[in-house]
Amino acid sequence: MIKDIYNGMPARELGSEGWRKPWSGTNGGNCVEALKLADGRVAIRQSTDPDGPALIYTMHEIETFISGAKRGEADFLFA
């Protein structure tokens, strides 16, 4: 078990197993990857930089983001 998990930590310190690409499309695999942590939080990293920083979110933050995206609240990013 990893002692200290913090926002911006090197993603490699979280290991290489269990990362998933839930939002991968037809872009050749260049996307974000997510890892559900043992304490319920979620780590996000860029697939093209798996050793780069991991952003750590609570489950509530992830649920809020995904719910908002489903409601169209992030559509301004496509304009």
TrEMBL record:
InterPro entries named in the record: DUF397
Span of domain DUF397: 18-70
Top-level taxon: Bacteria
A Pfam entry, by short name: DUF397
Protein name as annotated: DUF397 domain-containing protein
